[in-house]
């Protein structure tokens, strides 16, 4: 039985001092040009030092991959000084720093991109209010995007991070190539399930090769995915089981499922016997470690999640209580802060982007009383 206090070593040699990981959460704290800010450094610094690792918010790998204002940039060497400060800030008391890298694809608009039309696998708008129709990328552009993920990985290595996470979840560009809703291509990059997987396969292979050829030691590569989509057509849970089966053979250091609730079941009637986390863990069959996530609030939640995962990622609980990890490791659940008020925003470095997320996603945990 795994315990949050257990150490763990990845295939590339990186060791975590415990099995608690800070989940990636959008901060919107960077400058307009993608440069890290003092507030963002303070936000991560406050939540580092106790958990085994911190996965950052998404950093875009090319300029037209920017999804929102205040997003961290990783698409140019000019970002190296800030990225180095971020890695150093996180790596307190043995906590490991993992840079999440992504491209927003169609999940942005021309105002964020300063007049540039968003791009995606196909010219199909997302099913969200005011979504813009993206431009379908050419084959040469696909190869350029993959090259830019590789360059961002090289920058993460130079900046002193301990790994990168490929953000293939939450309907961003990597997922858009896998989804039958956003990928309507008729060439080798679309169509069948296997062809829609081609972009992911080449991206993963090339990023892994980049790391292996760099000579860096103990630098890991992970992949995050969302288990299903509600769009029609869209990714179904059976598609995801195919995906994780393929990725489990790729030499990745971990897979990371994106869930709002770790106990959530599939929308598919064929997969109702247990949670999606349990099905995915069973499919992986210990070929690669799995990070689970989803509304973990207590040590009991963490233990329940670890029945079907190797690591527990914690997001919202660490926003409210930056010392949640140490309290759980020490068996001091009674000391965990469970609500937060507007009076405590400055103390907890909860700036507008994070606070807006909390207002939308966890209103039951906001307390207006001092």
UniProtKB/TrEMBL annotation:
One of its GO terms (molecular function) is oxidoreductase activity. Residues 14-331 form the NADH:flavin oxidoreductase/NADH oxidase N-terminal domain. The keyword Nucleotidyltransferase does not apply. Pfam families: Oxidored_FMN. The keyword Oxidoreductase applies. InterPro entries: Aldolase_TIM, NADH_flavin_oxidoreductase, OxRdtase_FMN_N. Keywords: Flavoprotein, Oxidoreductase. CDD domains: OYE_like_4_FMN (cd04735). PANTHER family: BINDING OXIDOREDUCTASE, PUTATIVE (AFU_ORTHOLOGUE AFUA_2G08260)-RELATED. This is NADH:flavin oxidoreductase/NADH oxidase N-terminal domain-containing protein. It comes from Enterococcus casseliflavus EC20.
């Amino acid at each position: 039985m795994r315990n949050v206090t257990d150490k763990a070593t990845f295939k590339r040699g990186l060791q975590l001092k415990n099995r608690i990981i800070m989940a990636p959460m959008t901060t919107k704290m960077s400058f307009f040009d993608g440069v890290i800010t003092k507030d963002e450094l303070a936000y991560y610094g406050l939540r580092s030092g106790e958990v085994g690792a911190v996965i950052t918010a998404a950093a875009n790998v090319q300029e037209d991959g920017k999804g929102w204002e205040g997003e961290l940039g990783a698409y140019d060497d000019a970002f190296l000084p800030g990225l180095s400060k971020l890695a150093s800030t996180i790596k307190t008391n043995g906590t490991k720093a993992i840079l999440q890298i992504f491209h927003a694809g169609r999940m942005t608009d021309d105002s964020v991109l300063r007049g540039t039309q968003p791009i995606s696998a196909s010219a199909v708008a997302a099913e969200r209010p005011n979504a813009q129709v993206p431009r379908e990328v050419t084959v040469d552009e696909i190869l350029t995007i993959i090259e830019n993920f590789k360059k961002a990985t090289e920058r993460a290595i130079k900046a002193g991070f301990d790994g990168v996470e490929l953000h293939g979840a939450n309907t961003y560009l990597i997922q858009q190539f896998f989804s039958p809703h956003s990928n309507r291509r008729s060439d080798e990059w679309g169509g069948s399930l296997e062809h829609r997987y081609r972009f992911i396969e080449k991206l993963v292979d090339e990023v892994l090769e980049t790391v292996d050829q760099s000579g860096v030691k103990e630098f890991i590569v992970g992949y995050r995915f969302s288990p299903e989509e509600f769009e029609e057509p869209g990714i179904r849970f059976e598609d995801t089981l195919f995906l994780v089966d393929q990725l489990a053979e790729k030499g990745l250091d971990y897979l990371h499922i994106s869930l709002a609730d770790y106990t959530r079941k599939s929308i598919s009637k064929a997969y109702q016997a247990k949670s999606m986390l349990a099905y995915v863990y069973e499919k992986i069959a210990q070929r690669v470690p799995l990070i689970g996530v989803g509304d973990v609030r207590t040590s009991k939640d963490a233990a329940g999640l670890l029945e079907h995962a190797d690591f527990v990622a914690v997001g919202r609980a660490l926003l409210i209580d930056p010392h949640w990890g140490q309290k759980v490791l020490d068996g001091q659940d009674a000391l965990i802060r469970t609500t937060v008020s507007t009076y405590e925003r400055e103390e907890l470095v909860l700036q507008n982007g994070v606070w807006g997320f909390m207002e939308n996603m966890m209103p039951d945990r906001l307390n207006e009383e001092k």
